[in-house]
Amino acid sequence: MRAVALLVIFGLCHDLSAGSFDVTVKDSKGALVSDAVVYAQGNGMNAERAKKQTVIDQQDKQFIPYVTAVQVGTSIMFPNKDNIRHHVYSLSPAKKFELPLYRGVPAEAVFFDKEGFVTLGCNIHDWMIAYVAVLATPYFQVTGREGHALLKNLPAGQYTVEVWQPSLRGAPETLAKHVDLGAGGMKQLLFTLDLKPGFRAKRAPGFSTGGYR
Amino acid sequence: MQVTRIIGLIGLLALGLSVARADWRFDAETGVFYDSNLSNSDRAADEKSDSAWKGDVRAGFGFQLSRDLRLNLAGDVDGEVWDRFSGFNNIDFGGSTGLRYRFGLGHQAPWILIEDRLAYEFFDEYERDGWSNNFRIRVGIAITDRLSVETGYTFDHFAARDDFWDLEGNSASVRLTFDVISSLQISLGYAYRYGDVISYAVPPRSDILRLASEEQSVTTFGTNPLYTAYRLQASTHSVSVSAGYAVTKYLSVLVSYEYAATSHDPLEYENHLVEAKVAFAY
Lengths: 213, 282
Hints:
heterodimer, A: mainly beta, Immunoglobulin-like, 2 domains, four-stranded antiparallel beta sheet, 1 helix, 8% helix, B: mainly beta, Porin, 2 helices
C-alpha cells in the first residue's frame, strides 16, 4: 500500500515538474512557417534520448519529409520507393556520404554522429533536396503548415530555444531566446524569421537542370 | 536454330527489363511563335512576318550507366502550322541520343553533354522535305546555387528532297541562367552561326545574286509579286532572353524573345522572334 502511494506521488511530482514550450513560427510578413526546426537546449536537459533510427523516403522522385530533425547518434534509413534508381548524397560538413545508385532499401542506415545541418540531394534528379537537423538535444520538433511546435516534458531549468529553417537568412543563434522554465511551467514563444526566397533546381519542364536531360 | 532463338529471346527479355528499369520521361509542349521576317529579307518592302502554332511531343528514357555518366534516348514528333504562309507548315519525326558526364556529385558539378538528333521533316511544300541532323556538344557549370552558365557547339545539317533547300551550319553559343525565385527562372543567351541561309527577295537582285550559290523562284509568299529564294553563306549573331515560370512541378509557362542579325556583306537582315508556350513533363 505504501509502495503504491509512493509511486503515485512520484508520478504526480514528475508530471508537475515537466514543462513545455509552445512555439509559433512566422516570417517577416506574418505568414506561418512550415519545415522550421524548433529546439531547446539547457541546463535542465536529462539523459533522455529521442528515437535511435528514423526514415527518409524517396517517393515520386522526392525526399519525404523535406526536413527531418534527429538527435546526434541517430541512424537514418533511405528506402527508395520508386521503380527507378536514386543516388543519395550529402556534401555537408556535418555528414558527408553517398548511397550510390540503388533501388529498394539500402543494406545499412546512415549514422549521424555530428551536430549540424545536413543537405541531402540525389545525383540523378537535381530537384530532389531535403534537410536533416542533427541536434544535441532531445527536445525538438519540426513545424507543419500551422507553423507550430510543442516541446513537452522538459525538466525545469534555463533553456536556449532556437529555430532553424532551410531558407533562414543568418544563423539560428541570432534569434535565440533564453528562457527560464519553471517546474510544470508552459512558455509561449513567437519567432519571426527573415527568410530568403526559396530557389531549388526545378523539376518543371523547360528549366535548366545542369544537363539532366 | 533453337539455340539462336533462345539467345534472341534472352536478349529481348534483357532489353525489356533494362527499358523497364529506365527512368522514363514524357514531355509535351504547345505554344505560339512569331517571326518578324520569315522571308529573311534585307529590304523592308520584301519582309514577310508570320505566326505559327508549334507543338512537340517527346517520350524518352535515361539510363544511369555509372555515378557520373547518363545515357538519354528519346523519340519525338514536332509540328508547325503557320498562319499566312502554309508552305512552311511541317511535321517531323525524330529521335535523339544524349550522353552526359558530370564531373562530381550534385547539380552544381560541371557537366558535358554530347547529343545528336535525327529527324525527317515533311513540309507542305514537299520539295523542302528532308532529313535534319543536329549534333551538339554542351558544357555547363553552376557558378552559385542560383546562377549557372553553359556553352556549346552545334553542327546543323539538312538534306532536302530538292538540293536547293539543303542547309548546313556551325554555331557556338553561351547561356546564363538565373533562378530569381523558387518558381521563376530567367536565361540570357548569345549565339553565333556561320553557314547556309535562304534569303527571299523580289527580283531582280543582282546584288544578292553575286553572293548566292543558287537561286530559285518560289510561290511560298504568293505570286504577286513572285519571290526568289537565294541560297548563300552568312553569319548570324543572335541574343535571346527567356523566362520560365513553374506553375506546378509538372507544368511550366515559358516566354522568350530573340533578336538575330544575319549578314553577308552587303546583305543584312534582322529577325525578331517571340515565343510563348506551355510545357508539361512527367
